[in-house]
């Protein structure tokens, strides 16, 4: 039997509620609580926008708004930690920024309807992801909760001979744009061998500047040396690591 993921449906439902504190009771056939349990005939009680209880055959709080979801299986919202919210196939590579924004909005809608309630978007042109996050947070459009990086530091955008200053300048620019995370392409693509693109000192400077501002750093790194530099620089996450070796893992 096909399980219907309704996390996105529930989020969309909450977005439509009036801005008043009212209990809502979601009556379900089956609820997966995300902690290893399956609850039959569960009643999920939401108070002031937060889930306060998930119990089988629980009583409906007096005055609560009832929502019948007994045709569905309910589960926690899904999370994807690496997406590019505006990504799509653009053959020309020269589309107008407004078209990119439309694709980002459509992608956000599709993610939400598929049950994803939180996304970390690691790179979008023209700060499209920042503006989309703000539009979702303000209630202008529906979409998952977004944590965004804005424009990533592309591979070889700063030369090794340029030193550390441009790395810090890039981070400060992104922080000023109110991104949630700093994204750096610390290696070539896996197709190109995945070798490092920045020196260890440059990566350390970028991470230091980001951490001063309270921002985590995600480093795209494929081959072993690129992964090693990202780790030694103090990156919070290493993305991909498709070509790293056992020595780096250890």
Describe the structure.
The protein is 30% helix and 28% strand. The protein contains 7 helices and 11 strands. With 250 residues, it is of the alpha/beta class. Strands 1, 2, 3, 4 and 5 form a 5-stranded mixed beta sheet that branches. A 3-stranded parallel beta sheet has the order 6-7-8. Mean pLDDT is 90; it is low at 1-9 and 11-19. α4 runs parallel beside α5 and α5 runs parallel beside α6. The chain starts with 6 loop residues before the first helix and ends with a helix. The chain is elongated. The protein has 3 domains: 7-74, Roll (Urease, subunit C, domain 1); 77-151, 2-Layer Sandwich (Translation Initiation Factor IF3); 152-250, Amidohydrolase (Rossmann fold, 3-Layer(aba) Sandwich).
Features:
single chain; Translation Initiation Factor IF3; Rossmann fold; 3 domains; 5-stranded mixed beta sheet; 7 helices; 30% helix; disordered N terminus
How many alpha or pi helices?
A: 7
CATH class annotation of the largest domain? Alpha Beta
Low-pLDDT segments, ≥5 res: 1-9, 11-19
Task: Kindly give the count of domains.
Answer: 3
Give the SSE map.
Layout: H1 7-15, E1 24-32, E2 38-40, E3 42-47, E4 50-56, E5 65-74, E6 78-83, H2 97-113, E7 116-121, H3 128-137, E8 145-148, H4 165-176, E9 182-185, H5 200-212, E10 217-223, H6 224-233, E11 237-243, H7 246-249
Parallel strand pairs: 1-5, 6-7, 7-8, 9-10, 10-11
Antiparallel strand pairs: 1-2, 1-3, 3-4
Helix pairs in contact: 4-5, 5-6
């Amino acid at each position: 039997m096909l399980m219907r993921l309704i996390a996105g449906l529930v989020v969309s439902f909450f977005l439509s509620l009036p801005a008043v504190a009212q209990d809502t009771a979601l009556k379900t056939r089956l609820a997966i609580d995300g902690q290893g349990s399956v609850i039959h005939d569960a009643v999920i009680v939401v108070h002031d926008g937060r889930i306060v209880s998930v119990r089988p055959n629980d009583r409906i709080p007096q005055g609560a708004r009832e929502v019948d979801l007994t045709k569905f299986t309910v589960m926690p919202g899904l999370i994807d930690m690496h997406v590019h919210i505006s990504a799509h196939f653009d053959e020309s590579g020269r589309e107008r920024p407004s078209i990119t924004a439309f694709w980002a909005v459509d992608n956000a809608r599709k993610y939400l309807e598929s049950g994803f309630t939180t996304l970390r978007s690691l790179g979008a042109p023209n700060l499209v992801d920042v503006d989309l996050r703000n539009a979702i947070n303000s209630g202008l459009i529906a979409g998952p909760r977004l944590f965004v990086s804005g424009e990533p530091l592309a591979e070889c955008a700063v030369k090794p001979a340029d030193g550390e200053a441009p790395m810090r300048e890039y981070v400060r620019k992104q922080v000023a744009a109110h991104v949630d995370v700093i994204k750096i392409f610390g290696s070539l693509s896996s197709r190109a061998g995945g070798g490092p693109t920045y020196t260890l000192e440059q990566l350390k400077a970028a991470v230091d500047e980001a951490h001063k501002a309270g921002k985590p750093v995600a480093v795209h790194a494929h081959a072993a040396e690129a992964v090693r530099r990202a780790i030694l620089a103090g990156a919070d996450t290493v993305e991909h690591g498709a070509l790293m070796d056992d020595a780096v893992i250890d």
